[in-house]
Amino acid sequence: MSSSPVTAAIRPEVLALSAYHVPDADGFLKLDAMENPYSLPAELQQALSQHLAAVPMNRYPAPAYTVLKNHIRAQFNVPEDWPVVLGNGSDELISMLAVACAKPAAKILAPVPGFVMYAMSAKLAGMEFVGVPLTPDFQLDRDAMLSAIRQHRPAIIYLAYPNNPTGALFDDAVMHDIISASPESIVVVDEAYQPFAQRTWMDQIPRYPQLVVMRTVSKLGLAGIRLGYMTGSPELMTEFEKVRPPYNINVLTEAAACFVLQHAQVLEEQAAELRAQRTILSSALENMAGVQVYPSAANFLLIRVAQAEQVFGKLLQHRILVKNVGKMHPLLENCLRVTVSTREENTRFLAAFAASISS
User: Fold this and answer.
1) How far apart are CA 249 and CA 247, in angstroms?
2) How many angstroms separate the CA atoms of 133 and 145, rounded?
3) How do residues 233-249 score in pLDDT, each as one tens digit?
4) How far is the C-alpha of 270 from the C-alpha of 258, rounded, in Å?
5) Could you report the per-residue pLDDT of 123-135, keeping only the tens digit for each?
6) Do residues 259 and 48 lie in contact, with contact meaning Cβ atoms separated by under 8 Å?
7) Strands 300-305 and 291-293: what pairing?
8) By C-alpha distance, which of 262, 346, 355 is closest to 305?
9) This prediction's pTM
């Protein structure tokens, strides 16, 4: 009996995967994706629409993206002489890193629970993923990480700062130990939530030639345009440029980013408001009986509550969508992740959440 094109041609690792699922949020208060709830002011929206109307969509993007990279350097404090590699969101950067490093038997290592795309990129590139459990308080297990590095000699190590889905900032001293112990690995510090943490490893790149700092503009308020960037030593960035798809940043994304980054103060003010709302939301949740709230340096909170599966379902009945992370890893049992939003949306969530845990 002959096999089908699917079973004959598709790699078994891909056949075994499930597609990345994004739930339908139509009609819901969407607090599951760490999006900035604020739009641009009306006058900026109008100016942006006029700017985008003049973009020559019949032409390919300028291949070097020089103007966009200069805006990124200027607004995000990337030194002028450091190379910048762009991606269609940080997801594409993660994929590019895996493609560049997928030697036979190469491995990717990261603490778990962590961002799911680290493991996904490894599988898609035919690499092995090594997950090292965090401590019960969601910090790096220094000894376990160093032991795994010695045993597996990973090509790539990911350290999310702060981590998703926990929101924790890892201990800097432990991170230094891990980077120092990995001179032959590429150590990627993923700073997707840097606007809310206000701390960075960018200034450590000259100290560690293996260090790469990766960021995205998604959490800052530009999730829809899909733009990520990374920087590190010229030697590393030169190699990653070779696997970057040509014209991977489209002209509308490029034009929108260049325009908005000239008005970055608006985004910074929104991030400051979300940091303030994070404190208010965390305090309100901590005052609820039976709710454990974990410290967060991101724009979301990880909370633990009894029977989280039922609470998640009751929130859905209230038309509120959060992320049920309880099945992602044993350390996350009975945990939910909720995006920090506006004062009004946070108030609506708190009322629904209080009703959901008491009924």
Assistant:
1) 5
2) 9
3) 999 999 999 999 999 99
4) 18
5) 999 999 999 999 9
6) yes
7) antiparallel
8) 355
9) 0.95
